[in-house]
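Team,

Forwarding the record for the chain on the shared tracking sheet. I've put the sequence and predicted structure together so nobody has to dig through attachments.
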Amino acid sequence: MTIAVLALLLPLLAVVLVFYQRVAAERRAAEVGHAVIFGQAVAAVVEGFGHDLESSTLAAAIALGSRDGELDQSTSGLYLRRLYDEYGVLRSLFLTDLRGRIVASYSGAGIGLDLTERSYVRALQAGADTAWGPGLRGLETGEITVTFGRTVRAPDGTPRAYLFAALYPPLLLERLTGGYPPDADITFVDAQGLVLHSTSRPDLPFERRDVSRGPLMRRALAGSPVTIDGDAPVIQAQLFGGQMRFGALVPVPGSGWVVAFTRPLAPLEGRLRAEFSRQAGAIALIMLLAAWLTALVARRAVRPVSELAAAAAAIARGERPRIPPSAAGPEVAQLAAGMAAMSAAVAEREDALRRQSARLQVLAATSRAFAEAGLDTQVLLDAIVRSVAEHVGDGCSIMLASADGATLGLAAVCHPDPAALALAEQIMAGEPRHADTGLAAQLVRRGQPVLVPEITPELLGAIVRDEDRSYAARFGFHSLAAVPLRVHRRTIGAMSLWRDRPGDAYTGADIELLQDVADRAALALDHARLFQEAEERATAYAQLNATLRETAEARDRALAAAQEALRTRDEFVASASHDLKNPLTTVKAAAQAARRRLTRPGNGDHGALLASLGMIDTAASKMVKQIDALLDVARFQMGQPLDLARRPTDLVRLVHQAAAEHRQTTARHAISVETAEPSLIGQWDPTRLE
């Protein structure tokens, strides 16, 4: 009977084995798909780093471009050092003039070095705003270095200098989270097809790093993702020395790089063959045991064994069958227990792979959302809570710490239910939370995450304020997860998630995922803050420059007025000197005439003598008037008012007197006065009019 049973079971075994081979092929395709997802996640991280580097250098370029004076080590070195320390993963940060010579660096080294022949310098000189340089081998270390450059422009758009950030590609691996297979290789290839770094072959010789010749790599460099499944001999030979691998070539749009994420094919095929052998042996053993048990217990064993065989086939297909309890005997019961354990192990492994894949998809989606949000802080905050609420749910909020760190205030909140969103926003936008009490202290002061898988009524009263319980009463409040927002070893706020419906509690895996998202979000917020501060500083510098220009113009006007006043003063002094000279000449001439008359013998012309003395008196009076005028000028310069001695004065008579005085000083000129009026009397100061 045993032979007959075997004869019946052998075709079934052959069918099961053929079906299992198909399942094994599907498992292999699934492993390749997982590798593609890993590659996309790594490419998203590299793309995010590129966006971070572009935004950071943009903020730095605006700040440097708005500075007055020369950009050199004394004016820019300290700023470059501070930016270098904050970024953490750069190898170097330096500034060149428009000719390509280094004028400042974060460490002060390399000043004067000529980089004119570097391709990234030539690209900026040709008018590009940014440029990624190819991988270059360091002269001293021999390590591959990549350089990113940006044009530093003045507020009016005129180029002033070029800012460059250099980095070692292996440092990008520090930004990758855990969870990658230990045998995976991550390779970075630049836009020219040069291998920048390979985790499995870090010491690849420089002359063997050019992988641009293969058609698949050229497709990836052109922007098309490429899947590798043991094929692509050129890539296998160039990158991995002929070792067959599977994975993906994923383009990075911003920098033009390609990320190669691969795993060795031999272990996968070995595992599939070993699993196939184990499963085939298990199935064969099951068949033999079924035959033996059939022969042993006859009809009693037929049904349980057939059920176990169906369950074995389902397990081979990757399904999760329920192993039925067996009452056919201890042997069949042991077999059922073994199959149940095998089914549980397969299901657990599938769940772990699914969770890891979902985690990477969430990180990639949130990273894309952060990058698309740009550098506007509020837009970025809204994008963060919307992405987290969509992928993790239900509600998500971000509370940011005040400048002194004493309180937390609502910055953004999201919930798929508009009514729940409105109530949550109304509650959270009230008075700020104190950062030194309750859950906020654990998040902000100690930097520790908070996980409450299930919120019981007693726990609800302990952690939720009285004024906030209206939300729980209306929509429910059954699970809570919160993590700190940390950047550069300081906590800037907290991100919270809650679920309204029961039976779907947060876990420790959710906390790990949320902390990863929060760290990326905090870094994105810090970059947005730096960009806004740079814009504000640029605006302040522009306003200061305008004020300085206005001050300089006012100074120039005051200087011109002062020069005009000095010129007027000099003209007045010259005129006063001339006016004083005329009465002195008159005095001298009258004195000499009187002297000659007195020295003549028998001089008795007293009338002529009196006339000469009268001229002397008149000239002296005029000199007194001129001196008074000079004193008036001095009073004006000292800010004192001018006192006028107004009295009735005939202007026509005043003119005739002035003409008579000047006639006495010349014999060659005739001075006459013509007027239509015999007199013109008014209230004047005759002394100052003369």
